[in-house]
Description:
- By secondary structure, this protein is α/β, with parallel strands linked by helices.
- The chain is about 45% helix and about 15% strand.
- Strands 2-1-3-4-5-11 form a 6-stranded parallel β-sheet, sandwiched between helices. A 4-stranded parallel β-sheet has the order 7-6-8-9, sandwiched between helices.
- α2 crosses α11, α5 (about 125-140) runs parallel beside α6 (about 165-180) and α8 packs across α9.
- The longest helix is centred in the first third of the chain and has 19 residues, at about 1-20.
Amino acid sequence: MKKILALVIALALCLGCASAFADTVGVSMPTKDLQRWNQDGANMEALLKDAGYDVDLQFASNDVQQQLNQVTNMINNGCKVVVIAAIQGDALGSALELANEKGVKVIAYDRLLMASEFVDYYATFDNYMVGTVQGTYVKEQLDLDNAEGPFNLEITAGDPGDNNALYFYQGAIDVLKPYIDAGKLVIPSSQFEFADVATPSWKTDVAQTRADGILASFYAGGENIDAWLCSNDSTALGVTLALEANYDGEWPIITGQDCDVSNTNNMIDGKQSMSVFKDTRTLAAQVVKMVGQILKGEEVDVNDTETYNNGVKVVPSFLCEPVFADANNYKTLLIDSGYYIETADGHVDKLPE
Length: 353
């Protein structure tokens, strides 16, 4: 009996030691206000813990200084790797310098960290491709190669502080600009340049307010909007709310990104046409794999060493491939894959916690 008791105590001590000496990984997410960042953070935390790491997961409430403080604390508290989805890509320079001084590796998560040589890796989806998928969807749904037009288009892009937003915008515009130049696509508001269509912090209410203004100024006489190019779901939701309140024309094509619950349900209800699906489980799993390779001293998987220049260096990157969901395939992509559950009324909801 004494031998068994001694064995149990020894095992408990070993388990305690294993936890005490586990490497800690810091995960810095920008906010809890958007569904996708909650999912990203939860997915990564679960996968990192399953892989045997301790995790310091922090959300920064879309406050740049708060994120800087959180990342600095992660580094000072002994994190071996920090994974950062930045609120503002160029605002964490002092923390990145500290990481370099302490030998902490930095992975930029889905948003490129800018203006620093101390960014080791970048993991994201192919952000330019996200835009081309959205632009191609508009092109095909309007049959721009064959239809006479002209068609009315409006654009709502993302946060100017988020480096990805320009990639999304540029990918879509590269598809659609030939038709704009030819006069087949017309922008009645004349708001076309990124600076004119950007949405600070991706905020739904900001997108809605701008859309309200466009509708009042250019569509009050019952004119039709044929397509509204939105870079993500939070901006698409704002545009949809504005259209519901202040638009009497035929319902336009509306693009989005992230397949948020509200937007997916809008797709089911015919209020949003599509949303680019970036399966955060795939991206989180790739980051966890990269963390493991870093901590084991192995070669880290990357598949792009040319595209993502942060102003100081080209950051070695791993790009996951996005797909789009619409009313025809959302069940396969989102429900059958276990990303969401189907509700009794035929809509979707998050998995129960």
